Amino acid sequence: MIDTPQYRPTLHFTPESTWMNDPNGLLFHNGRYHLFFQNNPTGRVWGNIGWGHAVSTDLLRWEHKGLAIPATEYEMAYSGSAVWDRTNTSGLGSDDEGPLVAFFTSAYTEHHPTKPGQQAQSIAYSLDDGETWARYEGNPVLERSSDCFRDPKVSWHEPTGRWVMVAVEADHRQLVIYSSANLLDWQHESTFGPVGEEGIQWECPDLLEVPVEGGGSRWVLLLSTNPGGFAGGSGMRYFVGDFDGCTFTPDGDPRWLDHGPDFYAAVSFHGTPEPTVVGWMSNWVYANETPTFPWQSAMTLARRLSLTPDSLALRHRPVLPEELPDGVHRADFTLEVGDEVVVESGEGEVSRCVIRREEAGLVVDRSAADPHGVHGKLPATPPVPLPEGPVSGFLIEDHGLIELFLDGGLIAVTIQTFPHPGPVRILT
Can you spell out the DSSP letters for 144-178? Predict the structure, then answer.
């Protein structure tokens, strides 16, 4: 393949030259944001999965740090999370500074001598602020003799003074909740689900306390599903409810976290003052086939989350620089029925992504922004429900990657295009 610098975004994180999927181990510590991610260090398609690593001071400019947790002959390192064990509850750190502890899913190969094909939760830890990582000798720290037990998200639950882990039994559409005093010994507390359609997998859960605008907070459960997304293929939903440190109780049915096809596996940073998430900007329908080279895949912009006081809907506030750099475009607009916004790219041959408000709702159509034929199965979103009357919003376009925020950030649509190279024009 030929290098595609025209598709290398400026604000959206990409790996240097290899495959990437889910964000892992999001952590803010000592003034640095750590972004780990599912990474094949030897190619640009999925396989040989370990954890890649990058750091940033502003969530916008990233420094690549290389492979943090590599795959081994018998084990790939699937998705998970990372925490700062501030008071050294694990005993893995020193007296002066608690360790950084990463939880990942040990996906054992069929050739493993004792756990072929199983998935269990393991630990790696760092004593040098995340520069190097060592696997814990007592791994795995939690197992269920299951082949689909994965994606541990660990956080500190202040009211009960202990660590909490949420993970999934992916094929069974179940969330399993565990607690621990020391990050090493885990006790099962409860199981949530199954809920929703059969035949899909639950992945990459996150249970986080989110502030309600005006005061108070509620608990939000983020879930990625594959398939079952709003726009087809993989996607994300969320429940609002209560959590007492043992059991999550939802208020009602799940809602869509993002209505686009390219928002998956989003989880929150440990250690930030307000909930901040990053998602994988792709879809499992075509993730291995997108025409970027030598890298594969991008992350979304970081988004800070809050809940509205009336409907308890999640509001997305993307993290943006004060001034957009060259090659990144913003358009602000208001849509009534019949209005559209068009993102055009190229000279001679022109690509067009059309954002159109119809009677049934908002439709984002990228069928004319796909000269490579990647998105044939998912060329346009189904109509996204909108409130009555004029709806204002804005979009960010970054070398073909588009993130759209409407109704004060209550509606988000994330979509990737790979247009003809050339000048970008946004027609409103």
Answer: EEESSEEEEEEEEETTTTEEEEEEEEGGGTEEEEE
